[in-house]
Design brief:
Layout: E1 6-11, H1 24-31, H2 36-57, E2 67-71, E3 77-81, E4 84-85, E5 88-95, E6 98-105, E7 110-116, H3 122-128, H4 131-138, H5 142-162, E8 174-177, E9 190-196, E10 202-210, E11 213-219
Antiparallel strand pairs: 1-6, 2-3, 3-4, 5-6, 7-11, 8-9, 9-10, 10-11
Helix pairs in contact: 4-5
Length: 230
């Protein structure tokens, strides 16, 4: 398997109409989802994750239905094949009909997030961001200000997912340092860093703006994004 960080972006129209690509357990989960939007988003996330994992593993003859993406006890996704968890770290996100998946060889802490670039509002920034992040977001206006607010929010979500806690944890317990003109670009990605203020643990991150969205990746060790899976 690759030692770097795989990722894949997919859209609702990429998802097959039928459910033959889902495993038996996944079909049971899907059947229990009541609302159409939730079902669409769930299928998009599973399809994106399976495609990303298959590209990352590069195993000849591997079929989507042979993999199941299940929620672990803490809610984080894991990859199962023939009832056995694979040594793969995985994170899934979706927003506005787009799905993002990040995948890497375990063990490592991994998170990803995708957010539509839109106005977030002053109250969200002041209520959920640290003082340093507030100053960063309000240090620019217009499109740059919108980008900064969405970037910080997305990066926070990526770190919280990497911590396997998500939004159950106070968003202000994580601080993001980034900038639209950040140096250190790689294959279209720019760097950011995240810190857990309680433990001092540091996370390495990458971000990019694409198709009206901001995408973020986070891990607890230095990783470099691969070329996007075809």
């Amino acid at each position: 398997m690759k030692e770097s960080l795989g990722w894949l972006l997919q859209h609702l129209e990429d998802v097959p109409e039928g459910d033959d690509w889902l495993g038996a357990g996944e079909r049971r989960v899907l059947a229990a989802l009541r609302f159409a939007k939730r079902r669409r988003d769930w299928r998009l996330g599973r399809w994106t994750a399976k495609r990303a994992v298959m590209e990352f593993l590069a195993t000849p003859g591997l079929e989507p239905a042979s993999l199941e993406i299940r929620a672990a006890a803490d809610g984080a996704p894991e990859v199962i094949q023939n009832g056995v968890p694979l040594p793969v770290a995985l994170s899934i996100s979706h927003s506005g009909g787009c799905g993002l998946c990040a995948v890497a060889a375990a063990p490592l802490l991994l998170g990803c997030d995708i957010e539509r670039l839109e106005e977030r509002g002053e109250s969200l920034v002041r209520d959920y961001f640290t003082p340093g992040e507030v100053d960063y977001c309000f240090g620019a206006s217009g499109e740059i200000g919108v980008l900064r607010a969405n970037l910080v929010w997305s990066a926070k979500e990526s770190v919280l997912k990497a911590l396997r806690e998500g939004l159950r944890r106070d968003t202000r317990s994580v601080e993001v340092v980034a900038g639209p003109d950040a140096v250190g670009g790689y294959r279209g990605w720019k760097r950011w860093t995240g810190s857990c203020l309680e433990s001092g643990r540091r996370f390495h991150g990458w971000w990019r703006a694409r198709e009206g969205y901001v995408l973020t990746l986070a891990s607890d060790r230095e990783t470099f994004p691969e070329e996007e899976a075809a």
